[in-house]
Amino acid sequence: MGSRVEVHPGLRGRVPDDFASWNGLEGAPVALSRTTRTDHVMCAGLDIHLKRARLPLGTALGAVFRNSFLGRSRAEREYRALLALPPDLAPAPVAFGERRQSGLLRESFLATLTVPGAQPLSVHHLAGRDSTERLGRFLGRLRATGLLHGSLFARNVLALPDGGFRVLDLDRARIRPGGSPWCREFARDLARLDASLPGLSCARRLRVLRSIPAEPGDDSDCRRRIAEVLAHRGEALRRLARRVPRDRR
Question: Which is nearest to 55 in space by CA: 94, 95, 109, 4?
Fold first, then answer.
């Protein structure tokens, strides 16, 4: 068996650089799924969310076909994406680690700094004009960084007490250097977010989409972009319905 840990360059020497130390941390549970558990822990004086995954042998073997045998683990993919984003768009990364057996991924973790007071985005966070416009501008900033999330449901967006937002669960994300022009993948991201906010009025939905700033070189007007997002909404609803509900931080 072999394990590895990578710590954020600014935190080396402050937090553990061995897998066993991270595996032994205990804290308050925040989220739980079949293979993943997230805990709120204190480590070296830092307030951290620690997401740990343990894969039974059968699951680990199945993951071979999802490219985890030779490719990066989900924890590493998310860590790399977080490193590439400004700290006011996503939780700050602390470290990631993984343990493999004969090349098979058996355990992994991702540690990020806790975002104080953050809650999963819901309709009540978008009650007024200011909040919907702020969300639109936030989505525009994600687009300007070149981020294509791949799973941008409301559960993966955090609403902050000051009215800001953060994005998380970036293990499927791709980042295009130099920003992302309007494209089908971005429209799908917006459709997933829209579909996962039931109860949001049509006027507020449109205000969010209209508040996304245009990027230089855009050749699509606002109506055309909104129509494209709505065209993907059915697919987003079907994907949302297939997912087993689970708690999120």
Answer: 109
59 burial via Cβ count (<10 Å: 0-12, 13-18, 19+) = middle
Round to whole Å and give the CA distance between 8 and 128. Answer: 38
Tokens of 28: 């308050």
Q: What is the mean pLDDT of the chain?
A: 89
Residue keyed to tokens 């700094």? 113
- Longest Cα pair distance anywhere in the chain, in angstroms? 55
Q: For residue 179, what are the contacts with CB-CB under 8 A and spacing of at least 6?
A: 143, 144, 145, 146, 215
Measured at the alpha carbon of residue 247, what is the angle toward residues 88 and 116, in degrees to the nearest 5?
A: 30
Give the full edge-to-edge strand order of the sheet including 28-32: 2-7, 93-101, 104-113, 46-54, 36-43, 28-32
In this structure, what DSSP letter does residue 128 have?
A: S
Give the span between the Cα atoms of 11 and 18, in whole angstroms. 14
**Which tens digits make up the pLDDT trace of 80-116?**
999 999 999 999 999 999 999 877 888 999 999 999 9
Q: Are strands 174-175 and 147-148 parallel, antiparallel or unpaired?
A: antiparallel
Chain centre distance of CA 77: 11
- Check whether 144 has a pLDDT greater than 80: yes
Cα Rg of the chain (Å, integer): 19
**8 A C-beta contact, residue 109 and residue 76:** no
Distance between CA atoms of residues 91 and 85, nearest Å: 9
Compute the distance between CA of residue 21 and CA of residue 97 in angstroms, rounded to an integer.
11
